[in-house]
User: What shape does this take?
Amino acid sequence: MIPELERVVEQIAALPGIGRKSATRIAFHFLKQNQEKVEDFLTSVTQFHSKVEYCDECGALKSRHLHCSMCTPGQRNETLLCVVEQPSDIFAIEASGEYNGLYHVLMGALSPLDGIGPDDLRLASLPARVHKHPALQEIIIATNPSIEGNTTANYILSMMAEFKNLKFSRIASGLALGSQIEYADARIISQSLRARTVLE
Amino acid sequence: MIPELERVVEQIAALPGIGRKSATRIAFHFLKQNQEKVEDFLTSVTQFHSKVEYCDECGALKSRHLHCSMCTPGQRNETLLCVVEQPSDIFAIEASGEYNGLYHVLMGALSPLDGIGPDDLRLASLPARVHKHPALQEIIIATNPSIEGNTTANYILSMMAEFKNLKFSRIASGLALGSQIEYADARIISQSLRARTVLE
Assistant: This one.
């Protein structure tokens, strides 16, 4: 194999979900494209990487130098706060059309086996967010229906015990155990939001 | 969705074999990488696209400004010439370790339904290549075991009828009908090269 091909295949195969054969196929796809098309692709990656950041407040993705659309006052239903593991979960939930409240991204889930404890997640700022939104009535815990996600949900429930006036709920898992919200169908997400159960 | 994400997901989803959900996952993967890693990726694509070209002689991929390693005299067994559809087929065949002869890339296969006729392929230069290699004894036709690949094999056999002294063979299809050489196992390719049958 020639070195430029070797290198690009290695880089593409390092992307999640892509093996060496798919990577080779993608490399040859690039070769068939004209200069302009390849540059469009490269520019989109550069722009995405350099102009997108996480909101300090809720952890959602936002364009740099713009206000976070999820945190702009008056835009969302401030009686609800939905806790998710990843920023990408927000897109899946928004696509369901079932939810218009606030979000709080943890940037992961508790996983003692992987050495991920409470301090590695955006958990410490959760009480402060509750204080900041006096209209808040319910926290929907939408972590994945996995062991880690369930553990995290229980942890949140106990760390937030002081908020006696808040209702805590967990999205129903019409989602199969072990699956990931990020990749779920909009209809399944819709259903699991509607059928959410109150945590006692 | 924010515009930079929308754009990069659209670009990634346009790559072969990648849907919108995988594209979103890859975009988030980029976001997790540091500047340097993302630049390594982008540079590898740019370098590949700008520094790689097809050899005028055999049609294989080569680094620009370098001689084609498949055409350098004395490097390969010049009694054998293997005809393939795509430059990427060469890598699959080389990986089998079963073959050390010359190559001739057609850049496709005959497909009347798609409007691909003999003039759209690198067929016209095939007789000239035979004349250029007096040691040549056998032409192995390694087009895909598909209707188009088989049609192309038959076409080559009739257009090369003048070369009475050459043996023409077709790789055996231990490969399932309709599959593609590019994605086949090295062992299957190995076996189909060994079991090639002489065409009469």
